[in-house]
Amino acid sequence: MTSTAATLKSKPESASRTDIANAIRALAMDAVQKANSGHPGMPMGMAEIADVLWRQHLRHNPANPKWADRDRFVLSNGHGSMLLYALLHLTGYDLPIEELKNFRQLHSKTPGHPEYGMTVGIETTTGPLGQGISNAIGMAIAERALSAHFNRPGLDIVNHHTYVFLGDGCLMEGISHESCALAGTLGLGKLIALYDDNGISIDSEKGNIKSWFTDDTPKRFEAYGWHVIPNVDGHNVDAVEAAIQKAKAVTDKPSLICCKTVIGKGAPKKAGTGHAHGAPLGDDEIAATRQVIGWPYPPFEIPPAVYAAWDARAKGAQLETEWNRKFASYEKSHPDLAREFKRRMTGELPVNFSANSASIVAKTHEKAETVATRKASQNAIEALAPALPELIGGSADLTGSNLTWWSGSKAISKDDAGGNYLFYGVREFGMSAIMNGLALHGGFIPYGATFLTFSDYARNALRMAALMKIRSLFVYTHDSIGLGEDGPTHQPIEHLSSLRLIPNLDVWRPCDTVESTAAWVAAITRSDGPSVLVFSRQNLPFQQRDERQIAAIRRGAYVLLDVASPKAVLIATGSEVQLAVEAQKLLAAKNIPVRVVSMPSTTVFDRQDEAYRKTVLPDGIKRVAIEAGVTDFWRKYVGLEGKVIGIDRFGESAPAGQLFKFFGLTAENIANAVREII
Ligand SMILES: Cc1ncc(C[n+]2csc(CCOP(=O)(O)OP(=O)(O)O)c2C)c(N)n1
Ligand SMILES: [Mg+2]
Which one of 21, 32, 165, 340 is CB 3.0 to 4.6 Å from 40, fit for a cystine? Predict the structure, then answer.
């Protein structure tokens, strides 16, 4: 920090170690009090841990929060957001004190929980407990895989740690088992988690955490294959320092440092109680805390010496300059790799991607194959992936059913990180949050798969991907009763509609090989949000189209079969498109002309301009929607005067062909529905 001090006009008195940590305590309790809302206890309890990690270990540059080789820091216990805002402010990020004064206010940069894309230096949105640690595991996997792909002898351009703070809540959440077990198996040596072991969670206001959380956390993590450092005094900076050094020295296992802390440390009445967790301390308690910790300064005033002690700008600039120098030699000796590394870290697709992908879609059309769309999906990956080394695949133990493995797939393992495929095990939620971490780290476009019905297990991670606007691709096969004999436990009914309700999540359910390939292209091309790709287990017939129709798939819906002066419009998705096509023929034979619209993505179609939407669904013509799932969602397209043919109950175990008949999903029924409304 001497270089920082030198940049100041007059060298301030050096700050005491106590004051350095107390700056965080003061900012947290005062901001929460001013907002009359928030969580002061965790920042006050983790202040010393934050001091040691951020001032002595974290390699970051406040002037460039996107520096590719920065250490990643994740606040998994996101309710302690004021800790992170205080750290970003104090170390010199573009987060002025006014923003801290505006904590939790509309349009401030300091929302209730840390939000990716909202505040500089926030690596992921946290708050839903257990997901931050899982995102961090994704980031650590990304670091290992990227370093295996790009580092060359003497030129380790990818070499950074991932640090996580987490609390009791993260450890109680089931997802922490899923992802931490996998982190142990993969031996993620550069992942270091610091556990805020304070014996308090929300219900501690009324009872003791020992009534609901008695895990032996160190033994649990040892069993996962982690390196565990138990019983560290989280308020003793030397003890925390020694623990972090030990953790860094172990490079073949992730480390968990268990820090005993006192929540709300410094508050004379509320420290160590559930009352410090999530409510303002109150003016009297804050005044008393100032006395106890020896902090005489008014709210939001930090003495210059304390600022100087925290200021990470000079050191950060120096660290990045050193890395830039290394990268310059790398560029000289490996110009192609260097260009590729830059491209991947910015998330840009290869320049010829658009042209290549259009020709891949056209070729798929020429082949005119009738296969299951899950097979069409695998063919699409096979065609697209060779030019996209950033694609990193995986499945939650259903690789052979999801068909997510392609000829260039290679597993990532503890001993070899040079692959592009993760066997996530039966861990749908963990997989999805890890995928989000891979996307957030940069350098990768993750895709991961399970059966559509188990998207429920993963759901909040999809919501987080949508909120963060990141490119995670969720692949779900076995998309309806069409999966057959496995029965109602495995047959999705409400899933498509309910996924479409998540804002900013694109949901695709293609009807054949061509739509499947186009959906993959759309999902890969989309840089501002996640996509769900839904595929069938059973074969679906190829549909003939002209070039204009092929180009229109990316608009989410288009006219697949047209007639002059249609009396009705049939709207269908996925496996039901073939039924609509058959129904059209039945009706034509009776002189009832109808149009067939294929709508692989309602979410994408809804974003099209009104003029386009009206060319597909003209006003004044009645509509029938067909989808093998709940019907309510389709009312927005067919209105009250139209009809929806779907399934509003759970499925049955039987061969697929019988089930479609049993549930009334037949061309005859569709034709009858049209006759009833016209
Ligand atoms: C998935 C999820 N469930 C519930 C909550 C609500 N919640 C926020 S903090 C918290 C208790 C967390 O306890 P701990 O991690 O020990 O935090 P501490 O009180 O020690 O700061 C709960 C239940 C949440 N944020 N996320
Ligand atoms: Mg706790």
Answer: 32
